[in-house]
Specification:
The chain is of the alpha/beta class. The chain has helices at about 15-30, 40-50, 60-65, 85-95, 95-110, 125-135, 145-155, 155-160, 195-210, 225-235, 260-265, 285-300, 320-325, 335-340, 355-365, 375-385, 400-405, 430-440, 440-460, 465-490, and strands spanning about 5-10, 35-40, 70-75, 115-120, 135-140, 170-175, 180-185, 215-220, 240, 275, 300-305, 330, 345-350, 370, 390-395, 410-415, 415. The chain has a seven-stranded parallel β-sheet, sandwiched between helices. Helix 13 (about 320-325) links the parallel strand 11 and strand 12. The radius of gyration is 23 Å and the shape is globular. The relative contact order is 0.12. Belongs to the UDP-glycosyltransferase family.
Length: about 500
């Protein structure tokens, strides 16, 4: 007998920063009584399984009573995708949709249930076509803040006004619905670059497709981005349901082996450790690595530094770094970041501002030192430093640093935004100064006070009567009704 429960087919985007919230969304839906069929690409599954020794990563979730089925599908390729990124990206545009189509067809044919619907990452280009082909309710999941979603969503408007591509200009934009104002310097990197034509094609096609989605979920908190969310909701049903990292079930999500840092961390005093990580993709230039390493040496602070294989080459670290930090530093290739950030010994996070890192830092009450690299990192930095006031810039002009000491608010003067994150060259002395300011200075105390306020907002949002829980329950009701309506209209 067929089940009447809504059944979500979830196809995950293959990058680490997308996998974590996507898995937690699956767990959250299943905990509300939905059936889930969750699909990873085979090569993604192989990495996760190898690191976790789990063939079925959702086995523990099922044993706890959640109705989650797990499957994989092959892209049919036999080359290293990271080493052949452009070739892989072209396949994602033109070849992968057919593979997903076959996956969905196989799932639908294997079960008589008529309550299927589709949940896909907003960065995927294929959901519109597949949802229409099989008559599925189409749900798009944006794993980042509403601000960056809105900028991509209003790309044509930004083009019409001449602000995309940015081409090095610094101008205030105040016409995007729901965004009071933003400087073009804070746009995602893909709106700055003019040469990344294939990547642009991928992103822009994805955001053209999302405009046909029946529902959009966003891993943010309504109180943080109320105006932006409200404006988007007037366009399409848009639900702020974050943060989505608090699921109780343990499901493997890491593409890399995780070091166990607990014993080392627990040997340090509260608030004494700086956590340094630039995520799963960013690769700092050699001068940045040397400045940070030199700053760690000068500051004398305890630290954990995540240095992925291949991120640092021979000669990148300054002479004497290893010997000079042996007693107070721990270098690991990868770790369970949310566990580290929730340890009370962590005093600050030097971060690339990936959205997972931002959200996990806030949840742990850990102020941030920001050094964004590309994509949404740049726009997230604006939220962290300018809007929420829970972090500082690692690299900025001396004049701007002086202005921030004098001013209570970020000020705008003509077309100049007086809070610049240059992302340019920096010295080890500057890095040490920023570390000391956040770890032990008055600025750090102020940041910790502010981040506790935002953390409380997060906690309230996911409480039983909180905004995210309310929005999630509203989505469940709305999507369930839409599935039933379509079932009736097709009979």
């Amino acid at each position: 007998m067929a089940s009447n429960k809504p059944h979500a087919i979830m196809v995950c985007f293959h990058l680490q920063g997308h996998i974590i919230p996507f898995v937690n969304l699956a767990l959250k839906l299943a905990s509300k009584g939905f059936t889930i069929t969750f699909a990873h690409l085979e090569f993604v599954h192989q990495h996760i399984a190898a690191n976790s020794q789990q063939t079925d990563i959702f086995a523990a979730a099922r044993s706890s009573g959640l109705d989650i089925r797990y499957t994989t599908f092959s892209d049919g390729l036999d080359y290293d995708r990271s080493a052949n990124f452009i070739r892989w990206l072209e396949f994602c545009l033109d070849g992968l949709p057919d593979r997903v189509d076959q996956l969905v067809a196989n799932i639908l044919q294997s079960d008589s249930c008529s309550n299927y619907f589709l949940i896909a990452d907003t960065m995927c280009v294929w959901p519109k076509k597949i949802a229409q082909k099989y008559g599925l309710v189409n749900v798009s999941f944006w794993t980042e803040p509403a601000l960056s979603f809105s900028l991509y969503y209003h790309l044509e408007l930004l083009r019409e006004k001449g602000h995309v591509p940015v081409n090095g200009r610094r101008e205030i934009v105040d016409y995007v619905p729901g965004i009071e104002s933003i400087n073009t310097k804070d746009f995602m990197s893909y709106l700055h670059d003019t040469e990344l034509q294939l990547l642009h094609k991928f992103i822009f096609r994805a955001f053209d497709a999302v405009k046909s989605a029946d529902f959009i979920l966003c891993n943010t908190v309504q109180e943080l981005e109320a105006d932006t969310i409200s404006a988007l909701h007037q366009k399409q049903p848009f639900y702020a349901i974050g943060p989505l990292f608090h699921a109780k079930n343990s499901v493997a999500t890491s593409l890399m082996p995780e070091a166990n840092c607990a014993d080392w961390l627990n040997s340090k005093p509260p608030g004494s450790v700086l956590y340094v990580s630039f995520g799963s993709l960013a690769r700092p230039e050699r001068d940045v690595i040397r400045a940070i390493a030199g700053g760690l040496l000068l500051s004398g602070v305890n630290f954990i530094w995540v240095i992925r294989p291949g991120m640092v080459e021979s000669g990148d670290l300054p002479e004497g770094f290893e010997d000079g930090t042996r007693e107070r530093g721990l270098v690991v290739a990868w770790c369970n970041q949310i566990e580290v950030l929730q340890n009370p010994v962590i005093g600050a996070h030097l971060t690339h501002c990936g959205w997972n890192s931002v959200v996990e830092s806030i949840w742990g009450g850990v102020p941030m030192i920001c050094y964004p690299f590309f994509a949404g990192h740049i726009t997230n930095r604006k939220l962290v430093v300018d809007d929420l006031r829970v972090g500082i810039n690692l690299s900025e002009t001396k004049e701007v640093a002086e202005e921030k000491e004098e001013e209570e608010e970020v000020v705008r003067s003509g077309k100049r935004w007086n809070n610049l994150c240059d992302g340019g060259s920096m010295s080890k002395e500057e890095v040490a100064e920023k570390i000391e300011a956040v770890m032990s200075g008055k600025r750090g105390q102020e940041l910790r006070q502010e981040i506790q306020k935002v953390r409380t907002t997060f906690q309230n949002a996911i409480a039983a009567d909180g905004s995210s829980e309310h929005n999630f329950n509203g989505f469940i009701q709305d999507v369930s009704q839409e599935i039933v309506r379509r079932c009736h209209s097709s009979t």
